[in-house]
Amino acid sequence: MKKFLVTAVLSLTAIASFGQKVSGSKSSIQLVRNATLIIHYGGHKILVDPMLSAKGAIESWADIARNPTVDIQMPMQQITDSVDLVLVSHTHADHFDDAANNILKKSIKIINQPADKIFFSSKGYINAETLENQTKWDNISIERINGEHGSGKVLEMMGKTSGFVLSAKNEPTIYIMGDAIWTDRIKENIKRIKPDIIVVNSGGAQIKGFENVPIIMDEKQVMQLISSSGKAKILAVHMDALDHCRTTRLTLSEEAKKNGVGKNKLVIPKDTEIFTLTK
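^ that's the sequence the OP posted. Answer follows.
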């Protein structure tokens, strides 16, 4: 596996968080908000888990505030124009909402998990592909990885969810984990895949009545992930946008500091921040 360096730059700037300036057209990951990402990879623009609603458009999930709790800080056109592919890990409203359904063209290419095949068909998407395991889309290999969206009874309640692994010639291998808690199976997948970049949903979300059962990774689980991540850089998202998420950018950064994890290993982006990937 070739070694890749991740450099972070603010949107419309060339400020690199790993100490190097970047220039020209590069592969990149941009956090839009929550778990919504724009990935430029292998010459394509990929939109991941589009939650495009305005602030407060969706009901509260923890009786604290309506969701999302913050607005998108970039023009919608900048998000949706020239998208070649949409990856949807699952169809909970914080990953594919009514706004996304209304905004995206029905002809757009979507890759989704088997559990959501009927959903996308019923919404009229004519180019939705249900991915069982692996596929080759143009020059990019895509593998779907099952995640566990909680444990015990909560897992049954939350339903199926997936992550995706992207790989291509002369590109870093990216593991987008999706909504998942830390498990031995994910640990084994990391060892097998040897990703260069891991995108982790680290908001420590909970559901009412089961406040002691995280449905995505929290601070402590992210530290477990880091300890088993090999040389991968960790990009932590899914924070500070939903009322049922207990892990924040601040609490995660404090936990990282307590465990001696530096910014060269764990990146906690702000909304609209871009991370340029160079080999």
